Amino acid sequence: xxxxxxxxxxxxxxxxxxxxxxxxxxxxxxxxxxxxxxxxxxxxxxxxxxxxxxxxxxxxxxxxxxxxxxxxxxxxxxxxxxxxxxxxxxxxxxxxxxxxxxxxxxxxxxxxxxxxxxxxxxxxxxxxxxxxxxxxxxxxxxxxxxxxxxxxxxx
Length: 155
Fold this sequence. Notes:
With 155 residues, the protein is an all-alpha fold. Helix content is 69%, strand content 0%. Helix 5 (67-89) runs antiparallel to helix 8 (120-138) and helix 8 (120-138) packs antiparallel against helix 9 (144-153). It is globular and about 45 Å long. The N and C termini lie far apart (37 Å).
């Protein structure tokens, strides 16, 4: 506990990792050194930084974060991108987006930067690939970690 003094967010992340069966071996210093958090992982994904997102993916897995947790983080992130993107592509003015979506303004701001790196078809395709991965894993026909890695390599 002493290694997390003053950083309650990091403490909560670590406790959540342990509660989900992850490794308690990682320290606050390790997180600060690698910069690998789930939020930085999804941001790297949204910015299409393939090398960075793959590196963070492996660091997070080594730190005990389950592939399913990373999967759902990507699903949530893509939903935000699709939500903001659909409004932008429909011609909704940027100032109207917070009123028309249930997203926090900070999330909208990040999404507006990130959707510029994808076509609407690419966002839809990524979301469909995640849905198919989920289906395959639930049918015992796929592996979550390998499936995510394939998707990340396709960025």
